[in-house]
Structure formats: C-alpha cells, structure tokens
Amino acid sequence: MSNKPKLEPHNSNLGKAVYRGRFAPSPTGPLHFGSLVSALASYLDAKQNQGDWIIRIEDVDGTRCKASFSEQIIETLNSYQLSSDEPIKVQSNNTQTYEQHLLILKEQTLVFPCNCTRQSLSEYNGNHPYECKSTLSKTHSWRLKASNDVYQYEDTIQGSLKFIDDLKSTSPILKRKDDYFSYQLAVVIDDHQQNITDLVRGADLIETTAQQLYLYDLFKWTPPSICHIPLITNTLGEKISKQNHAKPIENGHLPTLLRALHYLGIDLNSPPSISEALSLAVKEWKPSKLYRIKHLPLEEQDLHLI
Ligand SMILES: [Zn+2]
C-alpha cells in the first residue's frame, strides 16, 4: 500500500524503497481469531508489496506478559505459515534504549513526573489535567506533556483522519511508576529502529495514532504509513480480546484461516492447503474493499471461534 512515499531503510544504500511491515503481538495469552486477522492483514500487505514481514513480541508490560505465551503465539503463527523474515525481537530486551529516549525527552522538558492515581484522575475521565497536582515521592511515572499540535494523515482504509484535541486533552504515561515503559513509547522506538515503513493494524489503535505521530515528531523521525483494518467484534460489539476471554485458535487449521481471510474481504474457493491459500490471498488482498469499515461483527457461523 502506498499512501505516501516509502521510507528509505536506514541501513540500506541500495537506493530503492523497501517495504517493511510487522505484526507485534503482546504475549498475554494464546493467539485468538481477532489477532490472526490482524497478523494476516499485515502479512498480505507486506508480501503483496514484495516486502519483509517481521514479528516482534511486545512484552513491555512485564506484569501481564509471559514468555510461554510468546512461544505459543509464534508456534501458532508458524502453523499458518506466517513466519518472521528476521529473528524475532522482544521488547523486554530493549529497555535501555527506551530509557535513553526518555532521557532525550526529559532534557527538553517534554515530559513531567507524576504521582496521580487512577482515582485522582477519575474527575477528568481518566485523562490527565494540564497541570499535575500530585505530590512527588521517589516512585512516580513520567508523562508526556500535552500539546496543541493537530495531526492529520491519510489512512488507506479509514480515509483522511484528523486528530484535533487528542494531544490537548491528555498526557499519556511513557514510563510507569513500577518502572515498566508504556506501549506508546516502546512501539514508536521499535518501529523506527526496525525501519518499519508500513503499519497495518486494528482500528482500536486509531486513538493512539496522534500520540505516536507526535512522538515521531519529537524524535525528528519520519513516521511509517499507517492504516487500520476493521476490528472483529463479538455479539456484544466488543473487540475480541484476551480480556473478554477469546479462545485460542487451533494450530494450522485451514478452515479457520479461510474464515479469517473472509473478514479481510478475501473469499477463496477451497484451496488445497494453507500455503496455497496464503499465496492466493496475497494476490487478492485489496485494502480498499474495507474502506471506512471500523468494526466487523463476527458472523454467526464463526461464533464457535471465540
Ligand atoms: Zn499527575
């Protein structure tokens, strides 16, 4: 997909644009159907653009992630022949880099220490007020200062997205009180370090986009192209997630793969194998078929998958 000029990979002097996409699951449970759909979308987009597709394990939240789930997720992805083109990186090995980048923001006073609790922020709908009123102690989090910047970008699937008040109304945590870095900071640094040129991810992440684009600006980096596929929802209209007890999917199960492709607008006529299905799907993938769709409720025949 090319909604803007491709980045030149930083480690290449070939003088030619190379697509690099990724799938970055959090190992808080086994892979479920919604994650398979996301993994497939990023894979198909990368392969249709003759690009590399990389798996990264987003285990930055050490309180929720388990190494055993990482292994299980990778095994399931491999069983669907979704294999990383490069050795798989794990965020928990990269905390020193996150610390260095937080320091850059500290030096420019773009972040501030904060001791606010969820309870004290409840009167602000969980957002952080412009000024921090907490009393500091030794343990505190680091938040990004609010900004009046407005971000707009062209999302190949969701159309033109404009974020007017996103940065004004809140100050996201970049490092938590318990010393874990936030997803927001880690994902931007990792995508930049791995020269990711294109993000294809679930529509639930649209709301984090402005903050990420802002971080790219603060570090003076060029952001990747970003597009958001529809979120697969359960009968209550909620995202299928580990939080609402989504079932693990069966490994290497062709019918499950075909149903996942169906939600990406690809209906294949009984391919004989997973590898055949994938190579057909790479040709058939057309993000514009999903234009402006943010949610796709699971069809009745697929309710057993969650
Ligand atoms: Zn505060």
Automatic annotation (TrEMBL):
Pfam families: tRNA-synt_1c (PF00749)
Alphabetically ordered keywords of this record: Aminoacyl-tRNA synthetase, ATP-binding, Ligase, Metal-binding, Nucleotide-binding, Protein biosynthesis, Zinc
Lineage top rank: taxon: Bacteria
Signal sequence, renumbered to the chain: none
Residues in coiled coil: none
UniProt key word Repressor: no
Sequence ranges assigned to domain Glutamyl/glutaminyl-tRNA synthetase class Ib catalytic in this UniProt record: 20-246
PANTHER family: GLUTAMATE--TRNA LIGASE (PTHR43311), GLUTAMYL-Q TRNA(ASP) SYNTHETASE (PTHR43311:SF1)
Annotated family: Belongs to the class-I aminoacyl-tRNA synthetase family.
Protein name, entry field: tRNA glutamyl-Q(34) synthetase GluQRS
Organism (species): Marinomonas colpomeniae
Gene: gluQ
